[in-house]
From TrEMBL:
Residues 75-165 form the FtsX extracellular domain. Belongs to the ABC-4 integral membrane protein family. FtsX subfamily. Its main location: membrane. Residues 190-304 form the ABC3 transporter permease C-terminal domain. GO terms for biological process: cell division. It is found in: Cell inner membrane. Keywords: Cell cycle, Cell division, Cell inner membrane, Cell membrane, Membrane, Transmembrane, Transmembrane helix. Part of the ABC transporter FtsEX involved in cellular division. Forms a membrane-associated complex with FtsE. This is Cell division protein FtsX.
Amino acid sequence: MNSEVEAIRPQSRLGMWFDHHVYSLVASLGRMLRKPWATALTVGVMAVALALPLGLWVALQNVERFAGNVQQSRQVSLFLKTAVASERARALADELQARADVAAVELRTPEQGLDELRRRGLGDSVAALEGNPLPSLLIVTPKADGDGDAEAALVQALQQLPEADVVQHDAGWRDRLAQWLRFGMRLAWVLAALLGFGALLVVGNTVRLDIQSRRDEIGVLQLLGASDGFIRRPFLYLGACYGVIAGALALAVLTVADLALRAPLAELARSYGSGFALHGFDLPQAIATVLGAGVLGWLGAGFVTGHYLRQTRPTET
């Protein structure tokens, strides 16, 4: 009989521990519902503090994705002189294709250029032209394993061709764009740290006010021998609830902003012949954001509650 009681006792302790966790969570939600305006203010401030760096991060991710697509198009446009015949242009394309640093060469004849202008709605302007003033165009794609120096050497070699008129290469602005993206990401992390610390302070101050309103209850629990973990647990769940709700609200705000901007941005991209579209948070990122906000609220509540318990712990006599 005694052995059976001893076997049941650890399970009972585990059940009590689990029941107190559930009770702490439910009680925290109840306290939030009993103070709707204070809860809304705390959650709103936290949501704004979270939405700002998250929104900047999402925007930079979209710009980086667009820049990645642009950077993958490392083509060099070689406009030949108008006096160069089509036969010489084809021969030159074959010569460039044989280079070790060239992946592909595409020839666009003056006739193809006129047809493209007509497809873009410039038929009247094309009809008014006398003859065909467009030159032959060679679109040269460097090898994918080449670095910036190799591309620069290729561009310099193309500029020295006697048939070359204009060589267009966009490596300079792509490098500057990459530098701006790195700066933007660093700025997003700095804002996330500052505003995350501000959200932690908001939760800490809210939990501190809740502790002050229950100081008599905490004093009684301390006199009865309750552990710091037992006393701290409801406040930890309170802070975590604030964080989770604020994280979900921040995601909702960013989703609404994404839906409001997606259609006009897609229309603008189509006007430039691009299929670029905004991408928001996927499911793993959304879950990580909500959980991270919950952890932030948990930490804020833990710091404040731990500081209060260290100050009010009864001294042993």
